[in-house]
Amino acid sequence: DIQMTQSPSTLSASVGDRVTITCRASQSINSWLAWYQQKPGKAPKLLIYKASSLESGVPSRFSGSGSGTEFTLTISSLQPDDFATYYCQQYNSNSWTFGQGTKVEIK
Amino acid sequence: QVQLVQSGAEVKKPGASVKVSCKASGYTFTDYYMHWVRQAPGQGPEWMGWINPNNGGAKYAQRFQGRVTMTRDTSLSTAYMELSRLTSDDTAVYYCARARLGIAASGQPFDYWGQGTLVTVSS
Question: Distance from A92 to chain B by nearest Cα, in Å?
């Protein structure tokens, strides 16, 4: 199975900060990577697919980049609604694997 | 609007089975793969498998092979996930999630999710 490793596990930031989260795959997944946002007690919400494509309705302050084994999610200016846990997900092979998550906390 | 509505919370004893339902509305049920994902307390999501609602074909994650069965009832636009031989490690929130693109597309992320069903396994 392809393993996904996110860093950092926790990130403390302030409103207005630029935030970057990294996700590494244990083998190449081309651009078959998605990012999700999850708030407590809620289902994950799709933000980015195919590494850099913004899902409809998602604010443009979210962006994704990368290919192969290394990927990043960037929030250009952190807003109060963005404090949540973020997960990457690979969907390259006919299996799907998530990272362990990055919790974005208020500094 | 697309909605996935799951059945309510369950409490089961070790060794028992649980069956969770996921009723879809707002789109053609047979046009999109349905996946099942679980999330143990404090952990990341874990993919369990998918079902093709059009023909009933299913693929399961290796670690659940032999213990999970995914089915559907097209007349009810409902998908089901049954997990047997439960242990305390199966305590988690179970989600159904729709693949982003239709049946003709290969592996896709998940654009709509159910609200989750908490399954607690305890003696």
Answer: 7
Of B64, B81, B65, B62, which Cα lies nearest the Cα of B22?
A: B81
Which of B59, B106, B113 is the closest to A44 by Cβ? B113
In 3D space, the residue among A106, A103, A104, A102 whose CA is nearest the CA of residue A7 turns out to be A102
Q: What DSSP assignment string belongs to A22-78?
A: EEEESS--TT-EEEEEE-TTS--EEEEETTTEEPTT--TTEEEEEETTEEEEEESS-
DSSP 8-state symbol, B27: S
Ordered per-residue pLDDT tens for chain A, 107 residues: 899 999 999 999 999 999 999 999 999 999 999 999 999 999 999 999 999 999 999 999 999 999 999 999 999 999 999 999 999 999 987 889 999 999 999 88
Q: Phi/psi at A58 (nearest 5 deg)?
A: -85, 135
